[in-house]
Structure formats: structure tokens, C-alpha cells
Design a protein that fits this description.
Blueprint lengths: L14 E7 L4 E18 L6 E2 L12 E8 L8 H11 L4 E3 L2 E3 L4 E3 L14 H9 L18 E2 L9 E2 L1 E9 L2 E9 L4 E3 L6 E3 L12 H6 L15 E6 L5 H18 E2 L9 E6 L9 H21 L4 E3 L2 E4 L2 H5 L1
Parallel strand pairs: 4-7, 14-16
Antiparallel strand pairs: 1-2, 2-4, 2-16, 3-7, 5-6, 8-9, 10-11, 11-14, 12-13, 12-15, 17-18
Helix pairs in contact: 1-2, 4-5
């Protein structure tokens, strides 16, 4: 197994583009598969915001997608998918249906309306701009795109949270590439699975140290109030292997194990955790799905860690103080 190159774009046939709004910390990220890719999805959180996920069911007709969108702005951010469709439509990408080609663009959103003016959120123009920026080069990580306004460790309130972000990772094994891209905006803490240490999460009341959310709960420190639907981790696991829709959905399901290893608690009532899977088939190989899923979970966990380690602190007028993992480590 070769060392990870740490980019979803290591999968042949995939481009990634970010749009980051300069007016407040928010944005969106597009994953382009303009030649079409088999896709699946698995939703584990109880507060999801999604589009076209039912289409990805193995029993439904459409076999390929042309892009995936991850956006901030809560449910308002789903509007950005319209801009992705317009960009694809202008270039003739889509499923041929009678006289037209219809682009297929599943999407998922996260809640980042805590930071700055909540009336500013990704729209169709943001989605279009993300497509314009898309490249096969390794995408930026941390506080960009959908990760711009992400936060983690919110179990005890946004005032004691830390900065989340977007991260990526990849590995090549047995002639195929498996990669992940994830926007980490979790209610829970981010944990290093190798050491069990909290990397980013809920802070003490004075803000100077991390308390470990689960350890605090086990000590009897119970939050007075939990904000419904105020979190969510969303992402993509991708491969150049040949997969069916059913296999892609299983790959997405197994990739959630990577979230469970690196976020605690995860898949809560206030998270809308959603992972997509993409298979471009460019390698021409169809290895064991057991192996692909196991590796997919590993790269997903690595991507979660990179998301918070590459993030930058937020602090300013009208914004909550969200220190980054790097700043807290100093």
C-alpha cells in the first residue's frame, strides 16, 4: 500500500472546486465527474439536508451522476446545486432524456449559520463559481469552500466550540485509488484514532483547554440545551474501481466507520451526517468491496483529521471565537 497523496483528485476522472464567500465564513465545494460516475449514498445523521439522494438508490433508474455538491448555509445552501446544473448544462453534460441532457447533481448541506450574517449563504452563483474553479489539482483544505464556516465540539454550545473545515486523503492499493473529501462540522469532538486524543472539540468555560465531550458527559456534566440541527459532517469517498450502484452505496456505508473512529459523538440527532460514494471505473478493475470499504473508512478518518488540522481560527466582530487545532496546540 503506497502512502496517501491526500487528495480526492488522485482518483482519475474527478475535479474539485471551491467557492468561499468573502462576506462571511461560508461557501460550497463541487466534485465534478463530467463523464459520469456511478454513485451511492448513506445518510446516518438524524438532521440531514440533501437533494437527489433517493435517485441514488440501487433500485432507481439513473446510473450516473455528473457532479456532487457540498454546501454551507443549511437548507438554503441547496440552491447552489442549481448553479452546478447550469454550468454542466451549458457544456452539454447530463443524462440524455428526449431532446435534452439533464445533469444529475446530488447535494448535501451543513449548518454554518452561527458565524456572521445568516442571510448570506451559498446560492446558484456560488455553485457556478465553484465549477469554474474546479481542477484536477489537489484542492485546498481547511477553512475554504464548504469548510469555511464549519465548527466542531458544539455539544456545550457554539461559544465553547472550535474551528472545523474540509480535508482530503487518498491511498493506492492493488492497482486502484481510494480517496475521501469531507467537511467536518460535527456536534462531537474530532479524535485521533491512533492515540485516542482529542484534536479539536469542546473547550472549558474559560476557553483555554479541551475538555473531551464524552469524558465530560461521563463525569455527569450534561449540557443544559442542545440546538437541533446545528451541525453535520458531509463528504465523499471515491475510487477509480468498477462498481455497481449497490456496491457504491455499500462503500458509502462502510466509509461512515471512518467518521465513527474520528468523531465522538457522531450520527446524533443534531447532525445530518451524509456520505456519498463515487466510482469512475477508470482503472478497469473490480477488486473486493470488503477491501475497498475498509480502505475507504481509513482514508475518511484521515481526511477528518486533516480538515481540522488545516483549519484557521475565526475571531472578529459579530463572530464567535473558534480557535483552530493548530492554535490550541501552541
Amino acid at each position: 500500500m503506497t502512502p496517501p497523496a491526500n487528495s480526492l483528485t488522485d482518483v482519475c476522472g474527478i475535479k474539485v472546486g471551491h467557492f468561499t464567500d468573502t462576506r462571511r465564513p461560508t461557501g460550497c465545494t463541487v466534485v465534478l465527474t463530467t463523464d459520469g460516475a456511478v454513485a451511492g449514498v448513506d445518510v446516518r445523521g438524524a438532521a440531514p439536508g440533501t437533494r437527489e439522494t433517493e435517485l441514488l438508490s440501487p433500485i432507481n433508474a439513473v446510473e450516473h451522476v455528473h457532479a456532487l455538491l457540498l454546501a454551507g448555509g443549511s437548507a438554503f445552501g441547496l440552491d447552489a446545486a442549481g448553479g452546478v446544473m447550469r454550468w454542466l448544462d451549458e457544456r452539454g453534460f447530463g443524462v440524455e432524456v428526449g431532446p435534452v441532457r439533464v445533469p444529475i447533481v446530488p447535494a448535501a448541506i451543513l449548518f454554518d449559520l452561527w458565524v456572521g450574517d445568516p442571510r448570506i449563504r451559498p446560492d446558484a452563483e456560488a455553485g457556478y463559481a465553484a465549477c469554474e474553479a474546479a481542477s484536477s489539482e489537489p484542492p485546498a483544505e481547511g477553512s475554504v469552500g464548504v469548510g469555511a464556516g464549519a465548527s466542531v465540539g458544539k455539544l456545550f454550545g457554539i461559544g465553547r466550540a472550535m474551528k472545523g473545515g474540509i480535508g482530503s486523503a487518498s491511498v493506492r492499493i492493488g492497482g486502484v485509488t481510494v480517496a475521501a473529501l469531507v467537511a467536518v462540522n460535527a456536534m462531537g469532538d474530532v479524535i485521533d484514532p491512533r492515540s485516542g486524543d482529542v484534536v479539536a472539540g469542546a473547550r472549558s468555560e474559560d476557553g483555554r483547554s479541551m475538555i473531551g465531550s464524552m469524558q465530560a458527559l461521563l463525569r455527569g456534566n450534561v449540557p443544559a440545551h442542545l440546538q437541533p440541527g446545528g451541525a453535520t459532517t458531509i463528504g465523499v469517498v471515491a475510487t477509480d474501481a468498477v462498481l455497481t450502484k449497490a456496491q457504491a452505496s455499500k462503500l458509502a456505508q462502510m466509509a461512515h466507520d471512518g467518521l465513527a473512529r474520528s468523531i465522538n459523538p457522531v450520527h446524533t440527532l443534531t447532525d445530518g451526517d451524509t456520505l456519498f460514494a463515487l466510482a469512475t471505473g477508470r482503472s478497469g478493475l473490480a477488486p473486493s468491496l470488503t477491501l475497498l470499504g475498509a480502505v475507504g473508512a481509513e482514508v475518511m478518518a484521515t481526511a477528518v483529521l486533516r480538515a481540522v488540522m488545516q483549519a484557521e481560527s475565526i475571531e472578529g466582530p459579530g463572530l464567535p471565537t473558534l480557535p483552530s487545532a493548530r492554535d490550541m496546540a501552541r
